[in-house]
Fold Coenzyme A biosynthesis bifunctional protein CoaBC.
Amino acid sequence: RALRGRGADLAGRRLVISAGGTREAIDPVRFIGNRSSGLQGYALARTAVARGAEVTLVAANVSLPDPAGATVVRVESALELREAVLAALENADAVVMAAAVADFRPVAPHDSKIKKTSAGPEPVHLVENPDILAELGERRREGLKPYPRVIVGFAAETDDVLANGQAKLARKGCDLLVVNQVGAGLAFGTPDNAAVVLGADGERAEVPRGPKEDLADVVWDLVAERLA
Ligand code: CTP
Ligand code: CA
């Protein structure tokens, strides 16, 4: 990394990264989940440590080894992820929400395992989860501490990738939004990614298909600029 001129440009910076995908319990043995592997979030953690940052990684259901030098907090649900991110935010300079957070959770998980009956399946009633990324932007707008100076979100889109990304950036009140196209062998569970990073300040950085570390380093370049 030093060869690429990045050196220890994040030394002394405290960064919070969320990774993986949340699981929302239906009953003690079942959950609603998603396909996020945590690879991109872990690549963000490794590259940030390599550039000298102090990293807290909030990992939701990731089966990857802890990145050396990062503090790892393991969570399962969106509500747990929110608590862990808010707790880690004390004195943090920046947050990157790479985790896939479930938009909805079962209203009340069953205490015991749901059994098959002749009456057929019962519907699972859902309620909306808090939008953690949007909440961080709101905290900052209202000056409600702790909030980070730089807020980065991720968006996985299938259609109208750029238009959806621009709208989401505005709606979430974040500084940077990493928009990647899902499908075509990219994103979920693969070592490669391709993305465009959109900024509230008009930034538009295209990152061609390559290792998730390359995208991570571009994200940190843009974060470092904004923290300077
Ligand atoms: N996010 C979050 N809390 C949620 C949902 C999403 O913090 N309850 C964050 C994700 O970590 C990601 C960003 O918001 O950084 C965008 O997530 P995405 O699912 O693409 O956005 P949504 O607003 O949920 O829109 P959509 O209807 O497309 O799912
Ligand atoms: Ca969503």
